[in-house]
Design brief:
Blueprint lengths: L1 H25 L9 E7 L7 E8 L3 H32 L5 H15 L6 H62 L5 H17 L2 E5 L5 E5 L4 E4 L2 E2 L1 E5 L2 E6 L2 E4 L6 H37 L13 E2 L5 H4 L1 E2 L24 H8 L3 H40 L3 H34 L2
Antiparallel strand pairs: 1-2, 3-4, 4-5, 5-6, 7-8, 8-9, 10-11
Helix pairs in contact: 1-10, 2-4, 2-5, 2-6, 2-9, 3-4, 3-8, 4-5, 4-6, 6-8, 6-9
Length: about 425
């Protein structure tokens, strides 16, 4: 009977190994699938054949963690650049360029030097001032649009992250239960790893495996995201992101990495500072121009009126051309007693308009340098992530040639054990017939 027992055990082991090899082959193209292997051992006792000790995934946890880290870095820079690149283009665009708008005004002022009392030249100055105000309103609208878009994306990412942590927590529970019952968990573990990989694109995660088969996940800063079957939820309020776990709330900063971190960073490091700098540029320019006009006199010999008005809290969104000023009230004269042909105050007005140019030019240069650096970081992160994925595939991926060889080997093993059973049956029948 030992002969039959040995053959039956070999037949069952070969059949299971063929199923595993076939499953590997069928899932070769499935992203994130980890190939499985059958572990065989000698059954206890003498001549008791072979036994399957386990069917397990071929994985390297370090390589998985490397993928998650590099994915978070790549997503961080991609999220950052998606807004930085747009802001760089808008701020430097010819149609909305502050320097170009100022150049149009100073050109009109220089033209008025020849005939400072000309209504046409004076009207041209007001018209170019209106054009500058319109350009800044468009620029403000573009920045506001990016702010709204960023808020919407943050909300979407928060909702997706909440869904992912909930799914991971559910799989934790299923895996722990299946492991306790000695049921297969490989497919559940693959599914959980795919969810973690997706979550890692949103923020950098720290993952710890537990003895019961579950995993605990936290942000790189230590905020809990998943513990056992409990999951954190993400929320966004006024573009500020936080995570809640067990009724405790943790604010998230740019240091969390991933796309969430990249969006938080670009808001704090680009969008808000650029808006603040434009507020400073325009307030400085408007104040200087109004001061220069106040120091001069109009065609009637009266003190100059301000050309611009704005709200101190937000010059970019509120800058307007003074609706009460007329062409004749532009203070081009430097002395009330001078004739209407006096143009001695125009140079001071031109200088006042140019006062914002150095800061504006510096801003454009800084955005260009920053954009180039981030684009370089994206390329580096993509290479590192690609290498990490390739390294994992070399260990956990399915090699169809190897699986074909395994199938052939286990088919021969199956056939050999079937032949043993057939031979044992013939021997048994021969012995029976001999009596």
């Amino acid at each position: 009977m030992s002969l039959l027992s040995n053959a039956v055990s070999g037949l069952n082991a070969a059949n299971l190994a063929l199923q595993v090899a076939g499953n590997n082959t069928a899932n070769a193209a499935v992203k994130g699938y980890s190939r499985q292997s059958v572990y065989l051992n000698t059954a206890s006792g003498a001549l008791n054949g072979v036994k399957v000790t386990k069917v397990d995934r071929i994985v390297n946890n370090y390589l998985n963690h490397d993928i998650w880290r590099s994915s978070a870095d790549m997503s961080y820079y991609q999220g950052f650049q998606s807004y930085l690149g747009f802001i760089e283009q808008v701020v430097g665009a010819e149609s909305l360029n502050l320097n170009d708008a100022v150049a149009q005004i100073t050109s009109a002022l220089n033209a008025a030097l020849a005939q400072p009392d000309s209504p046409a030249y004076r009207q041209q100055v007001l018209s170019t001032a209106d054009a500058l105000v319109q350009d800044m309103a468009q620029l403000n609208g573009a920045l506001d649009g990016q702010r709204l878009k960023l808020g919407k994306e943050l909300s979407d990412l928060a909702a997706n992250s909440s869904s992912l942590t909930a799914q991971i927590a559910e799989l934790n529970q299923r895996i722990s239960k299946a492991q306790a019952l000695n049921e297969p968990v490989a497919e559940l573990q693959d599914g959980r790893e795919r969810l973690v990989t997706e979550l890692a694109g949103y923020l950098n995660v720290s993952v710890l495996e537990q003895a019961d088969g579950s995993i605990s996940i936290s942000t790189i800063n230590g905020s809990p995201l998943v513990i056992g079957n409990k999951a954190a939820s993400f929320s966004v309020l006024d573009n500020a992101v936080s995570v809640s776990f067990n009724q405790q709330q943790y604010p998230l900063t740019a240091t969390i990495g991933g796309r969430l971190g990249g969006l938080i960073a670009v808001q704090q490091q680009v969008l808000e500072p650029v808006t603040a700098q434009f507020n400073d540029f325009l307030a400085t320019m408007a104040d200087n121009v109004n001061a220069a006009l106040a120091a001069g006199f109009d065609l009637n010999g009266d003190a100059g009126k301000p050309l611009f008005v704005y709200e101190a809290a937000s010059p970019l969104s509120s800058l307007r051309r003074n609706p009460d000023i007329t062409p004749a009230e532009l203070a081009f004269r430097g002395d009330a007693t001078a004739g209407v042909g006096d143009n001695s105050n125009i140079a001071a007005i031109v200088n006042a308009f140019n006062s914002a140019a150095p800061g504006y030019n510096s801003l454009i240069g800084e955005l260009a340098i920053q954009s180039k650096q981030v684009q370089s970081s994206i390329k580096t992160a993509q290479i590192l992530n690609s290498n990490a994925v390739s390294a994992r595939e070399s260990i956990s991926g399915v090699n169809l040639d190897e699986e074909a060889a395994n199938i052939l080997f286990y088919q021969n093993m199956y056939a050999a054990n079937a032949k043993v059973i057939s031979t044992a049956d013939e021997l048994f029948r021969t012995l029976i017939n001999a009596f």
